[in-house]
Specification:
The protein has about 775 residues and is α+β, with helices and mostly antiparallel strands. It is built from 17 helices and 38 strands. It has an 8-stranded antiparallel β-sheet with strand order 21-22-23-24-35-28-27-26, with no helix packed on it. Strands 1, 2, 3, 5, 9 and 12 form a 6-stranded antiparallel β-sheet that branches. Strands 4, 6, 7, 8, 10 and 11 form a 6-stranded antiparallel β-sheet that branches. Strand 15 and strand 16 form a beta hairpin. Helix 10 runs parallel beside helix 13. The longest helix has 20 residues.
Amino acid sequence: MLVKHDRVVETSVLLDAAALGAAWRRPVGEHGGRRATRIDLAEPFVGEVVPPLVDLRAFDQIVMVFRTAGGTVRPTLGIELTTQTEGLSAPDSFSTGHAPELTAEDDWARYPFPWENFLIFGQGERVYPVRRMALTISAATPGITLWLAELRVERRARAAGPRLTDAGLAAELDGFDGPGLLAHLRARKQPRHAFGATPAAATDGATLAQADAICRHHINGYEVGDPVNWRLNPNGYLEWMHAFNRQGWMNTLVAAYRGTGDARYVRKLDELWLSWLRDNPEPEGHNGGGDPAWETLSVAVRGCRTWLDAFFALLDDPHFRDSTRIEILKSLHGHAEHLLRYTGHANNWLIVESRLLFGLGVVFPEFKRAAAWRATGLARLAHELKRQIWPDGADWELAPGYHMMACGGFLIPLELARLNAIPLPEGFAQRLIATFDYVAGLTRPDGTLPSVNDSGGWRSRSGRDYLALGAELFGRPELTASPEGPFAGRSRAFPDAGMHVLASGTGSEALWALFDGGPPGASHCHEDALNVEFFAYGLPCIVDPGITGYLRDDWTSYYRRTQAHNTVLVNGAGQTWARQPHDARTVSARDRVQTSAGETCEGLRASYDQGYEGQPDGLVHTRALLFVRGRYWVVFDEVRGEGARDMEARFQFVPLRLVLDRRRRVFRTLRQNLPNLELWPLAPAGRPKLAVATGETAPVGGWVSEGEDKPAPQARIKLTGDGARAPLRLVTVVLPFAQGVSSGVRVRLRRTPAAADRVTLEVRTAAGATETITYGWRDGLFS
């Protein structure tokens, strides 16, 4: 026997064609010798049904028996329970995640939904009690017909992993068996690679305490059982399950062993690794769906960032068993074949999947399939580099955290290719160089990156480690010469992303602003068009609030909506761009942002016209940002369109004290003995309503993420129109000051007709000098 397979030991019809047809009001008839429900897929089909069984715990798989005419389909299955985990805002549920496509034109086919593939939301018991199920079916080519015979429930006798037997491993190798391959790996000089060089030895108390906890089976904050329960769901947060199975914690054991020489760390790693291998055989006949162990992203991250380093770090170690090493090699073959056969979401997933596929093909040429792994991995990487990385260096998800993850997925292949004289496609390295300039260009005065889109807490992420890779790989030491980056004190633009920085000064003199005039991005995106950030004299003031995690709760929803960002609501409604089709979310901003510059000023201008929730079409928000270098910024906001009753500009501050000076009608931060900032809101017509919201919960408002949700003041400036069709307009002066408790500046607008095409702002400094700024609402020109 070369490969071990699962066996179905119990099977039963859950819903037959008659039951499905009745529930969905679809025709039922004879087709291909079976009774079947006919579904015409002119558009994706969604059918809800209440199954006759509410307790499915005796089974571990649902199977759709179907047939198609003329095309390929992608079904997904969702199951909602009657229970709800305390603290979450939705019922406990299961969803199959990213499912592969399947064609069944010639005969009836089985489409399996194994329990291990389901994403788990909440802490519902598997799978009981069931309230309802929802089957979604989409077609690669709309218009085909699908016949659905039944949904079955099954119980399997699962083989212990890995699926390759010793004979199977030998059959996949070019002239070796398992022990022979290990001897060869220890003696060979080629191929060259750097796996095993990390993690570095650690002797600090925190790392050793964490390693000791892992030895007691306390991993990632929870007791995981003895033997380990690799399907543990301790907190209802599916990302925990995936992190657990991506096994970054293995690096802690290797680091502790290297630092102390204590063999119990290696023996425990051996034990845990083998336990995982036995309990998690490779998927059969499907892509792993949302399985924390075999979801394609988990495969890619675990294989490259943990397994290869640990395997080669301990290749010669006497405390790690050769028998376990052989089982690891079998599973690495399974990892490669899984990624060769299936791909996940066509975003950062595909990049890191291809990284591992290429890497395994380079590092293990002893496998007969290694050439196919290398060629396919490199071809996919080259394609995704052109597709996902824009000419200005931005990854199309437009989230700095995911930018470094996605772009980092090209760096190990680049290094492996250089070390082993593997030709790379033309322009491969050149496009990567721009990704480092993007990170350096967005670096804030405190060395952190903006938390745009899904990028964690508002100050949780630095690009320094990523820039260090660029400095080493491309000989660019200037990338890491200063914590503020090589562009400190200078404005910079990334026209495809629509990200622009207006800045002057460095260190304690740094004034820095970010203007987001670009699209939402391919994924992980927020409804934050025309968002801005401001740093005053090197300190953060107004920021994107970030996001704490992906729990299905009110805070996660809030962080992704317009209400959390430094932009404008119209009639109390947020934007809808991020919910539009993929192509609409990933259009370059090169033609969207208007720029201007003079001797003392520079400006930016862009518009958002992609709709607001529940509002009529045609509403347009235009925002301009003017920077008077070394002094202050001015934000000009205009909303046009029939049905615009009011607009509300919001500015989210970091956790600090923010007061509303009602006499001056000014928002002012109060940081003792530190630089501060004022917001002066003005309107050519009408009197804005001013408010500060902090830590509100119904609805959520005035929060930022710092790894956890933290209350922080949010300034709100609401202008209500007079019912006429004149546009709504706001002018907000952003005034930083380095000393004292107020800026001493006075600001006013000259009186002009409400619908005038130009507005003039007068700024009187603390020294008594007056300067004027004129802005054209129609042409966007400053003077």
